[in-house]
Amino acid sequence: MYRKEGAEQAAISGYEIALSPGRTKGRFGWHVEARIDGAEVQADVEVLVWSDIVRGSMAQGVLATYGQLLQTAWVYIASGALFPLIGVRKGPFLAVLYPVGFLLVQLVLAVLAAFGLGAVLGLIHPWLAWGGLIALPVVLEWFRRNDNRFLVYYLMHDYAYSARYRGANPPELEARMAEFGDLIAQALSEDVQEVLVVGHSSGVHLAVSILSDLIRAGRVPANGPALAFLSLGQVVPMVSFLPKASRLRGDLRYLSTRDELTWVDVSAPGDGCAFALCDPVAVTGVAPEGKRWPLVLSAAFRHTLSPERWKVLRRQYFRLHFQYMCAFDYPGDYDYFRITAGPQTLAARYRGRAPSPSRIERPVSRYTGVST
Questions:
Q1: How far apart are CA 125 and CA 121, in angstroms?
Q2: Most CB within 10 Å of its CB: which of 89, 125, 200, 304?
Q3: For the whole model, what pTM was predicted?
């Protein structure tokens, strides 16, 4: 996606960008060489992968997934987190309802198929009607095996992972986050201009905690590269509103005051899967005095995408959730490729920039307790 969308953005904006294999052994990523705004720039991109933990910790079977559906619904309803989430933004709530609703639709279709097959077999002999039940697991398994078309199981496992621990991080995730912190600390010791951490969607709340740990431990050198954090399409309230998310709430509060980094949060009302323009610190109810971050900005899809492109993408909700890392027809001051491969640091690019006037900052979360 970076290669394809970067080439398209370069053609639109009039700069050059090229990718080559990553230069760091044993890590997933790539090397970028660009000529932007008259400057030659090199960037090394490393992807910090944690999706394997979610996949490995969750049962993948049909029955187990329906069990996760019930457990996840119960956690959000019984904890009282559900209605505050709806009060902030209805879009993410509807995105959560998608896998829940579609799993129920799949179950109904499987029952109908079993009933229909049973009716046909019953014409041969009444007892054979019970054979129609064989259609139930067959239909449900077909949907599971073809989930790349529907993303229902994928999303259900993602939501259930956070709900399962009621907002706390399981030990295996904390261990992976510590590894990520070591990688970022290593990058901060290298001769580069900037170390930019990009978090997208569920990755944002992990980045908040990783960067907080890094700063607390004194691992951000005063005379080292600039440290920046770009959060995109965040869904932080899905976790921070849960009762046992005190670690995340404390990290949000801590990171929002630090001068060791620049934190810019970008979202768009057109992204129905994100808590668009919601200041994650403020809506969680942990904004302290002296709060500096994040700088909340809008990617304004209706204005930065051409009418033709917007018409095509506006109903493709999951594709829009990734638009932040794609090409824009009229990028304005948000251009993912200028940010990740351009000559300006994130701090320089947005110095003096006012936050979006339509941002949401009212405290909403029922749970505001923090751990330090």
A1: 7
A2: 89
A3: 0.90
